Amino acid sequence: MDDDTRYRVSFLGEFTDRALEAEYSAENLEASRTVTASIALVCGLILALFVVQSYISEGGTLLFARITPVRMMFIFASALMFFAARRTAEHKQFVLLVSLYQVAMALTYLFTLKHYESLNYFSAIGLLVITLAMYLLPNRITYSQVISILFSIAVLICLNRKLSGMQFRDFYRIAAYQAILLVYCNMNYCMNERTKRKAFTAKRKLQEVSVKDPLTGIYNRKKFDDVVDQWVSFSNRYGSPLSILLFDIDNFKGVNDHFGHMMGDKVLKQVVHAVQGCIREADVFARWGGDEFAILLPNTNLAEARKLAERLRGRIAEETVEGLLGVTCSFGVVEYERHDSKQSLLRKVDNLLLQAKAGGKDRVVVEPKGVGLTPY
């Protein structure tokens, strides 16, 4: 998938690439949790003030006895949301929590309206305020749309039946204002989300440029060194197998000298293309420098790494570039041993590659554990 397609943003302000959208959501989860916890705390405190006001004006009445338990349940839900939002580790769970909280917000208001025999225009204002509160919560736009629209319809039906002194034109105006608010909230939300994802895209592309080789598109040496550090530490701690292949193109200088550097670039790209078709997604493939390449193979022992090297050697030899035949590569293969450092591991595989070159090229040289350099 090319970059333009991968980073495409939909009309609703989300990446069309579901995997990329998941990455974006995961990266922004911490900020979303903070915002949600803060809004839940504010909403709970505001409703607590309504309970106090209702106690002062309606305490001891049947109405107070009916609506207070509903409001207390929402205050309790807000407190739970405050703590749960800050501890949610998965974005899918977070979206579910926010959606449930939006539903609780809507149902609390609807149940409260239901217990009043007659309503006033402050009830319509409550509809507007709660709609705004829903869109402040960082949920998926489609979920917020569905919940807010159903909530608006339910409240408008309730207002139409109970709003005292309201004529049809008044109801029409309330419905129109709510429709305008929904349109505004959706447009503002989508525009903000598109802006955020454009910033995320620019940041991601900048990161990719810093770790990718501009000619071949695979990782550069800096990125490879960083990943080797991470995996050496992991293997040292947990004992999982780890292998590295280092290879270069035989007689590559001759290709540049006789056919020009443009042809040399094409050979490099063709070799990379051949290798990419044989390795796993978890493998880390990088341009080591010039015509040298390195592949880090997590959870791979020496026998498996040797088989892969032989398969790559044969696959590359089958490639042709504008009539140029006989492109071969020499390989060094090493497996991580307990207490190896990054430097010792890379030094060993580099020596293995040198031996492969000295031994006649177009071959794989490995170093089994406890044994000296051995050609395969």
The total of beta strands comes to: 6
Task: Name the structural class.
Answer: alpha+beta
For the biggest sheet, the summary is: 6 strands, mixed
Low-confidence stretches: 370-376
- Write down the Rg: 32 Å
Mean pLDDT: 88
List keywords for this structure.
376 residues; alpha+beta; 2 domains; 6-stranded mixed beta sheet; 13 helices; disordered C terminus
Explain briefly what this protein structure is:
67% of the residues lie in helices and 9% in strands.
Structural commentary:
The longest helix is centred in the middle third of the chain and has 44 residues, at 168-211. The protein has 376 residues and is α+β, with helices and mostly antiparallel strands. It has two domains: 3-208; 221-375, Alpha-Beta Plaits. The chain contains 13 helices and six strands. Strands 2-3-1-4-5-6 form a six-stranded mixed sheet.
What is the fold's blueprint, element by element?
Blueprint: H1 3-6, H2 18-27, H3 29-58, H4 62-87, H5 91-114, H6 121-136, H7 141-162, H8 168-211, H9 221-238, E1 242-249, H10 252-259, H11 261-276, E2 284-289, E3 292-298, H12 302-317, E4 329-335, H13 342-358, E5 364-366, E6 374-375
Parallel strand pairs: 4-5
Antiparallel strand pairs: 1-3, 1-4, 2-3, 5-6
